[in-house]
Amino acid sequence: MSLFYKTLTKLQRSLYLYFPGEENRTPFKRCSLTVLMDDVTQESVEAALRDLHLQELADQQELILSFPVPVQGGWNASLDPAGPDDVMVFRAMQDALAKVDDAPLPVNAIGIPTLEAMLSTWHPMNDTKYVLGIGSGADMALTLAATSPDNLAAVVAVQGTLYPLALEQAAYAPMPVWLCGCDQGAAAYTPGNFKWVGRLTPQEYGDRISRADLIISHAGMGSIITALQLGKPIVVLPRRGHLRETRNDHQYATVQRLGNRPGIFVAEDETRLPVVLDQAVSGLAGAGGIGISRVAEPRLTMAIGRFLAGKPLPEKS
């Protein structure tokens, strides 16, 4: 069994890692599943691998499994200031899934990790991380889903509670969460200040967008292009890399490039959002403008065609 015990020296915390029976480094990144439990020992981890069929799942799907060890007393899902910062610990442990020890990788003369060292590590994906919580681990899983949904693909909570402070600090980012025997606080929460639905079909989404006076979104190109095509004004708040809301600052780069277009209102952070919303609402009469075409401009397709045919590109006008 490929089960390893790893200590993170700086955090003074530890976890168990299970790697699938495949070679470490491949062209394909692997998803990961973090299992949060009350009592984490080698015996309890081996039991979970066996009785919950997690070992079989990991080997079939080539998943990296991690079992973080909580401090005595369980997980600080209530975000008690006197307790450990388990949200930070979880994030640090997600960055520790690539290798079985905490030692730095060997480097060459110019400070770059050697090829042999890189090939010895695993290659977990940073945006398809799954969490399974059981007991107080389920409480922690719900706290993570509420407050730190960045790069989490889905969460399963078995008999968990969503604590008030976690709800107060919620990021309100949609993500799949399966609730198994959780209390009503976790299961019954709904937004109180606006209409909402759990899911929209593409047709329903398109209908609501077409009827909207104003669109508010993160700075994803799909949302921006949809707004431009329909001639709808859009307020965008880019996800930021340094906040771990996304892998890098590509959304920030998007608004830097497109933010001056008519009908696009950019709030670079949450402190600017109220002002930008007021600006967008006050200018609704002419904010959107004429919608753009659903297909590329002829000069672009012509230039691509000439490039593919090996012909010289037209000069810039």
Task: Describe the protein in words.
This protein has twelve helices and ten strands. It is an alpha/beta fold and 317 residues long. β5 (124-134), α5 and β6 (152-158) form a beta-alpha-beta unit. The chain has helices at 42-51, 54-61, 86-94, 115-119, 136-147, 164-168, 184-187, 202-211, 221-230, 250-258, 273-282, 298-308; strands at residues 3-8, 13-18, 30-36, 64-68, 124-134, 152-158, 177-180, 215-217, 234-236, 264-266. The strands form two sheets. Strands 1-2-4-3-5-6-7 form a seven-stranded mixed sheet, with helices on both faces. Strands 8-9-10 form a three-stranded parallel sheet, sandwiched between helices. It folds into two domains: 3-187, Rossmann fold (3-Layer(aba) Sandwich), CATH 3.40.50; 202-298, 3-Layer(aba) Sandwich (Rossmann fold), CATH 3.40.50.2000.
List keywords for this structure.
single chain, 317 residues, alpha/beta, Rossmann fold, 2 domains, seven-stranded mixed sheet, three-stranded parallel sheet, 17% strand
Q: Percentage of helical residues?
A: 25-40%
Overall pLDDT score: 86
Main sheet summary: 7 strands, mixed
Distance between the ends: 65 Å
CATH class of the largest domain: Alpha Beta
Structural class: alpha/beta
Enter the CATH topology name of the largest domain. Answer: Rossmann fold
- Low-pLDDT parts are none
Number of domains: 2
Strand content: 15-25%
DSSP strand count: 10
What radius of gyration results from the CA coordinates? 24 Å
The CATH architecture of the largest domain comes to: 3-Layer(aba) Sandwich
Going across the major beta sheet, what is the strand order? 1-2-4-3-5-6-7
Globally, the shape reads globular
Number of helices: 12
Listing every helix as H and every strand as E from the N terminus to the C terminus, the arrangement reads EEEHHEHHEHEHEHHEHEHEHH
